[in-house]
Amino acid sequence: MPMMKDYLFWLSETRTGFARAELLALFTLFDHPIALPDDFGELPYVIVASSNEDRLMEIAQRSVCTKFVIHLWTHSKDHSELFSKLKECQWCLDPVNCDENRAFRFTVFCFGKKVSQSVKTDKIEQLSFLPFRGPIRLEGADNIFFYVENYGRHLEKAPEDPLEIFFGKWLCDGNRKAMSFFSLKSRKFISNTSMDPLFALIMANLALVRDGDVVLDPFVGSGSLLVASAYFGARVFGSDIDYLLLHGKTKPTRADVKKREPEECIRTNFKQYKMEEKYLDILVADTSKPLWRKFEFDAIITDPPYGIRENSQKVGTTKVDVKIPEELLAAHIPSKVHYSLGNIVDDLFELGLTNLKIGGRLVFWFPKSRNESHEESLPIHPSFKLISYSVQQLAQNVDRILVCYELVRIDSKVDPFIPRAVKQFRQTYFTNLGKECKVKYEEDSGK
């Protein structure tokens, strides 16, 4: 039976709130269930036990919230205790680690405190008692050993000594390089609200996107979520009501750019990343009135408009008994009305009921006032199981929540519960913004 070992996942310090949800999703995707500690999310790392190192590497190398993973040999809150434990550590004597023909190097990683290279060198010198006999090689080493010190999250108030010290053998890095590859700075086609590549990749991981899946984004915008899904092997399909954006006719987003390029559109991005074979199509369509027939998508991933930075609209009219003459129908451009966030969330659940496979995931963002509790702001539907939610703080006293649901059964006769915080978000936002502007005006004017 394979031996259980401890592994240290070091996480992105700015996104640890999303790391738990992402790792749990990847443990599910790779069929490798692992229990995570209750305090995970408060620390910049997590320690897990596993007997399948290869599977753990697959998980880590797909995670965008993970910086690196080491096989954790020992850890302590005190240097002398750590060194004592290392002198008795069985892994130090393993031929794979101490063979004279295997080159090695040390990496010192200090979290929460700036440490000079000379200080790092001194820390490495303190490890000279380790029985590694191979040559030291900075590039192309066979073994890389990590010495990690945690000084806490407050860089400006870092303690003199580390709070925790870890030592182990490097296993692999996370998938942080994907964020640079898909950077919006170099992407051909973007809009004012293009999703940050980090969050787009996290959403695809939450949705368990894998090779051969078919993924839908019903509020596709500039297609960032479809790009992330295609990167993990899915074929992608989307829709949006904004004809001008989808056809690259809107005002350019980048500063000092006067006109969009002739072929600037979502498909251009897929050509840029050499993933055009993953692109199915994009429709100009109203999500509240889906055009496609029933089709079982593997996942629905989206970031709907909130009516703040982008208009949230659907086809409709406030007029009564409007009938378009038949001879004008072919050229008629439908009028639009406001599409409230509550109705959007309601329609997303309905879309999931009719166009998701059982076990498929629905992943989307929604905003809320920071004054509202997170739990009481979560939409609920009896056909969907809430898998996770993660919170990002925005400006103007607003949070946005990334929710992940899984379709567990089909029950279209029951309406979802949409909390007041969701239904009234736009009204609350502008009311609070007005109050803040009034206070600032009074402060600035001396009133």
Q: How do the strands line up in the largest sheet?
A: 9-8-7-10-13-15-14
Q: Gyration radius, to the nearest Å?
A: 26 Å
Question: What fraction of residues sit in β-strands?
Answer: 25-35%
- Terminal CA distance reads 75 Å
Helical proportion, percent range = 25-40%
Q: Give unreliable regions as ranges.
A: 437-447
Beta strand count: 15
What is the number of helical segments per DSSP (H or I, 4+ residues)? Answer: 13
Structural class: alpha/beta
- What general form does the structure show? elongated
Biggest sheet, in brief? 7 strands, mixed
Mean residue pLDDT: 90
SSE string = EHEHEHHEHEEHHEHEHHEEEEHEEEHH
How would you describe what is shown here?
The chain has 13 helices and 15 strands. Helix 5 links the parallel strand 4 and strand 5 (143-150). With 447 residues, the protein is an alpha/beta fold. The longest helix has 21 residues, at 425-445. The protein is elongated and about 90 Å long. Mean pLDDT is 90; it is low at 437-447.
Search tags:
single chain, 447 residues, alpha/beta, six-stranded mixed β-sheet, 13 helices, 15 strands, elongated, disordered C terminus
